[in-house]
């Protein structure tokens, strides 16, 4: 069977762990309801909605209810929720959030790199002082420790968001020590993160459960899109058991999430990644991060 046909088939049963839907402060291709309906129609097993601005747990619950389909949410710790705000995290957990991202568009590191994503550049060139996880001595701030403990207790996903690899190394090691069982490194091959292969291996050694690669990084959403081979190389370097494939789609210039997932699977098949490994990365691993048994 050719890769294109195979990829289309493999969307069935997959989970997209990273979709940006509307309503949002940025233009989005689809709203929450449309994302859920299309994923259900495509035979996917679940989706997770991400916003840079607010907790999506309640939105996910409503989209799931209306469509009778598993939809999950989370919260990114940007200024709009108070930044590194343990009280907001506690509330998100009680609302059913499955993933807490460290700062994304308001991360100090990201604000330096924001030119790499034209969509955000105009909005963020404001001289904003970004959020940084470490204190002057290089240790995690007390608020981050508190947040780690809330996440460990709730047994949900801690994700690195758009912080630097330097912060992420410290964060992941501490989260692992404090009992967080689901630690996701958000798009480490993305141009603004640009982990080396050695850094990806190191962060897994420090306790990261999953490296999450996204097809969005290969599209013209990025000023300098990465080659699919960069992701294939990363998969081979740490193994499928430590990798998830998500779309990070939702941008108006990219295809819909279901098509983006198909494209991602196609690209990895073409790179020679075995079908069984792709199933692990698009189904088994995200299911485990969501606590689902499929
Ligand atoms: Zn994203």
Small molecules bound in the structure, each named once: zinc ion
Largest sheet: 6 strands, parallel
Radius of gyration equals 17 Å
**Shape call:** globular
Number of helices: 12
Q: Which terms summarize this structure?
A:
294 residues, alpha/beta, six-stranded parallel sheet, three-stranded parallel sheet, 9 strands, globular, binds zinc ion
Structure in words:
The chain is an alpha/beta fold and 294 residues long. It is built from twelve helices and nine strands. The strands form two sheets. A six-stranded parallel sheet has the order 4-5-6-7-8-9. It has a three-stranded parallel sheet with strand order 1-2-3. The radius of gyration is 17 Å and the shape is globular. Zinc ion is lined by residues 18, 20, 50, 248.
Short overview:
This protein has 294 residues and is an alpha/beta fold. The chain contains twelve helices and nine strands.
Write the layout of secondary structure elements.
Blueprint: H1 3-10, E1 15-20, H2 32-41, E2 46-50, H3 57-67, E3 71-72, E4 74-76, H4 86-94, E5 99-101, H5 108-113, H6 118-124, H7 142-154, E6 157-159, H8 165-177, E7 183-186, H9 197-205, E8 210-214, H10 228-238, E9 243-246, H11 257-270, H12 275-290
Parallel strand pairs: 1-2, 2-3, 4-5, 5-6, 6-7, 7-8, 8-9
Bound molecules: zinc ion.
